[in-house]
């Protein structure tokens, strides 16, 4: 009987996606010494925090130009800066790489809930379907430049993350998650707009 139970337990364990990390590890950016939590989802290893690196070149901002927000939500980067701001051995993920993660998590309609931080400490209610079962801890850092070049919006409501994939010479694809929806969504926007960055390990 004990042998049968053990076999059943082992069988269930083998069926579970072992590629979703339950215990986060850390990575220290050698450029500034900042430590980030990292998480493995499927075949991919991601920063489990928004990037908060100050590049020597390129345009980036703390939300509302207030550094206190950068401590939690990271910086907002225009697309050119986003493409060159990940640390050595990491890169800005392509649209296809974001979609690969969404597919592994059951599809775009439900992946956002599995990626969003639980509760309403940082997300506005109702933070629909948020479980953060992946440990990715997606946060709604808002954006800069959607309405006007110097206007910040959507903190607590929407998380936006650049992809490395261009849609035109002036625009690129990005990912968004919303406080009132369970999915992960893809759209395009001009490269001058500033969004958050999540880095993917090479």
Write a structural description:
This protein is of the alpha+beta class. It has one domain (19-201). Helix content is 22%, strand content 28%. It is built from 5 helices and 12 strands. Strands 1-2-3 form a 3-stranded antiparallel sheet, with no helix packed on it. The chain has a 3-stranded antiparallel sheet with strand order 9-10-11. The protein has a two-stranded antiparallel sheet with strand order 4-5. Strand 9 and strand 10 form a beta hairpin. Helix 4 crosses helix 5 (108-115). The longest helix is centred in the N-terminal third of the chain and has 14 residues, at 2-15. The radius of gyration is 18 Å and the shape is globular.
Number of strand elements: 12
Please bin the fraction of helical residues: 10-25%
Calculate the terminal CA-CA distance, rounded to whole Å: 46 Å
Order of helices and strands: HEEEEHEHEHHEEEEEE
Largest sheet: 3 strands, antiparallel
- Give, in spatial order, the strands making up the sheet with the most strands: 1-2-3
Number of helices: 5
The low-pLDDT segments are 1-19
